Backbone:
């Protein structure tokens, strides 16, 4: 295949993906008849419940603000995870993209305090973190990527 054909084919695929994402991002209709709508509604209500359970508390014991994604993730793993997952997730410093899902191209990033990249100490725990993330959030087509303290890739997994 020629270079021009590859570039044209890549452009067409890119336009189709962008069109699909934009078509689903503007959907604000609460009533839905799709087969995934009830599961999506249950998942959203479950996420809202876990967000309320994991809310940060002030000195007076009342919820003062919504917990960060990392705090919500850690609270979920502390409640539901294995001892190995709990130890691995204790190194999580930041989670991005977990709250914005459209089941088409979901991507979340988890940052840790490990160092050394793929060959460092965090490569094995990164798989545990990705697995725990998949238990926390579900998506039709999600990818979670785990990074070290320097932003180097440690691992990834589907969720």
Residues:
């Amino acid at each position: 295949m020629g270079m021009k054909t590859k570039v044209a084919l890549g452009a067409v695929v890119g336009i189709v993906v962008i069109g699909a994402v934009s078509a689903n991002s503007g959907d604000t209709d609460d009533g839905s008849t799709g087969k995934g709508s009830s599961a999506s509604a249950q998942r959203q209500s479950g996420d809202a419940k876990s967000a309320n359970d994991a809310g940060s508390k002030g000195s007076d014991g009342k919820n003062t603000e919504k917990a960060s994604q990392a705090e919500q993730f850690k609270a979920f793993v502390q409640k539901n995870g294995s001892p190995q997952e709990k130890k691995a997730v204790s190194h999580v410093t930041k989670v991005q993209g977990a709250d914005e899902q459209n089941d088409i191209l979901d991507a979340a990033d988890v940052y840790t305090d490990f160092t050394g990249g793929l060959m460092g100490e965090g490569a094995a725990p990164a798989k545990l973190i990705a697995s725990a993330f998949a238990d926390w959030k579900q998506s039709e087509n999600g990818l979670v990527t785990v990074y070290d303290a320097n932003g180097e890739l440690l691992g990834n997994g589907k969720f």
In short: The beta strands are 56-57, 63-65, 92-96, 106-112, 142-147, 153-158. The chain has five helices and six strands. The radius of gyration is 18 Å. Residues 3-25 form the longest helix (23 residues).
